[in-house]
Amino acid sequence: MAASMPLQVRALGRVDYLPTYQAMQDFTAQRTADEPDQLWICEHSPVFTQGLAGKQEHLLLPGDIPVVSTNRGGQVTYHGPGQVVAYPLIDLKRAGYFVKEYVYRIEEAVIRSLAHLGVTGHRVGGAPGIYVRLDDPFAHHRLAPALPGVDPFIGLGKIAALGIKVSRHCTYHGLALNVAMDLEPYSRINPCGYAGLKTVDLSTIGIQTTWDEVANLLAHKLAAQLAP
After folding, report:
1. What pTM value is reported for the model?
2. Which residue is catalytic, options 90, 161, 192, 214?
């Protein structure tokens, strides 16, 4: 049966953003109902990407880093060396779940990848992505519900960003998990549209690992979580 086809994982290495973006669009536009789902794992050269909701005022000082407008959801984010980028190309109709659950499953894959490394990842309501406690990234206690008028990101750093597009029930774009990267470019933007939001990577919270190890771990967790 088509629904039981295994997810095909493709390791792309370090690739430029624009041709990868175009390739995702082409794959999604041309795929047939019996086309196996794919998961592309890669790393990008430095680039800022703007989502459909992106506002120019969140792009503070891009400098020498190119800015690419995209058709994914969300605001501006940064991609660069030392970050694992995952693009699930999933037929949701065949998989049997809707967009909200798809996003939940992607976030769950990140949370479980971080847990494997001893880090506790957290969701923040209304702000897709995964966050860690800056004072204790390894604590297991849950976040308290955000109070009205209180900054929900106090004490948190964003370690994984999420932005997706769905066309003809099929997904593209995806997520980025920060491993060991130059975080300075994040100071040139309001990450994901939030002024002052701190961005961290595994290295800065004390996890010494390799890009390859995290890429393999995340690919494994995504394949498990995104199964029909």
Report:
1. 0.94
2. 192
